[in-house]
Amino acid sequence: MRIAKSKRRTSYHHGDLAAALTSAALKLIARHGVEGFSIREAATLVGVSPSAAYRHFADKAGLLAAVAKQGFARLALEAQDAMSAARKRHRSAAAKAVAAFEAQGLAYVNFAVNNPEQFQAMFGRYGASSQQPVHNVCSTDQSPYELLKRVLDELMFTKVVTPAARKDAELLAWSTMHGLANIMLSHSFMNHDNVNVDQVTLGIVRRLLHGLRLD
Amino acid sequence: MRIAKSKRRTSYHHGDLAAALTSAALKLIARHGVEGFSIREAATLVGVSPSAAYRHFADKAGLLAAVAKQGFARLALEAQDAMSAARKRHRSAAAKAVAAFEAQGLAYVNFAVNNPEQFQAMFGRYGASSQQPVHNVCSTDQSPYELLKRVLDELMFTKVVTPAARKDAELLAWSTMHGLANIMLSHSFMNHDNVNVDQVTLGIVRRLLHGLRLD
DNA sequence: CAGATATGTTGACGTTGTTCACATCTGTTT
DNA sequence: AAACAGATGTGAACAACGTCAACATATCTG
Hints:
Two copies of one chain form a homodimer.
Chain A: H1 17-32, H2 39-46, H3 60-88, H4 93-114, H5 116-123, H6 144-156, H7 163-186, H8 197-211
The first copy, chain A, binds a DNA duplex (30 and 30 nucleotides) through residues 1, 3, 11-14, 17, 38-41, 48-52, 54-56, 59-60.
């Protein structure tokens, strides 16, 4: 793993090393993958000695957790944008809810496909989330699971369902979306070279929606 | 990472180092996780010098791929056993198909929950499957995706559906099962301490089955 | 201005993946 | 049986890694 050239800086102190390191980490993760990432390379890229990183992060996992955190924030933002845009295209509350649900699924899968390595840092076993509880790495209002729960509520607000059935519906929807996202970027058991991600995703989301009818 | 004591052996040659190494790797992966696994520790555990491993595997990823391969074989076996047992409990072909589908889902999720690290080696980005095409690591008749396709065929053999709809159904089912398995072992966005894995899984599988109606 | 605190550097330790030259065993050919 | 070739294991080495302790320097607070 060749180490890239270092930037120079004039002052002894960096200014915002923590942010610079997470952003460098994001770049490097995108390049060599999460497992190929090294704290030393990130430090060198930022133009700082490797041990400087330890003033801002407990260890390698800590840095990766910061990358994951950033990812959750961005995903929540993108999903919410997509949802509110989708809602604007319809009049009735029911149609709005359906459109929002579809938009959320599309946003989720697209995020995974377009940022596979960050997605891996967010959900993978290596970097974050699974060694530590998710709350350390993702606030409640950015949790994709919470987001999905909310749009599901919107979708079923008229129906009267038992709490258990609601919980089942949540888990089913979350499983399907999470599974689809993982499959889309795993390059396993699929040849999605000639595949339109949006189209396939929308197909699955609609079928899921259809299956979610709680009757 | 402390290295365990080594076994002794009498002869210069080992006999079946490849198998011994994969089995040691499986043990160690179960202990420290995939990312904490080292080829040196496996070699030491088997009682052999680290470089000996390179006579049997190209590199670390190669060894992990072997572990993954073993996992696919075992999963296929368990799933098929569970399916044929389930089929025996019913008379009509339709009921058999439904029972087999349920059994397959249960087997899949249970395998993931009971062998989380091997599951990770099979599907994770680190060890295998994603750097190399799956065929290197899992033969067609052991592919969980193929298995699921077959049981889906059985399930829908009466219905006439377009190939596109069938493909959609396959992807939906595969996404849901794979997603559920991942969620079950991610300890994220769920507190499944007081959770009966079989019961929850069966609930999801039945709901999926319900959503799969191709009308 | 002075001390305290935050931040960055240097150098080191132990571990890792991997390779190369060498040793030893096994099987085949003469 | 002797000689050889191929397969398999060893030992020492290399560069890179995560992490830490001792030290240096900048910034903040009084």
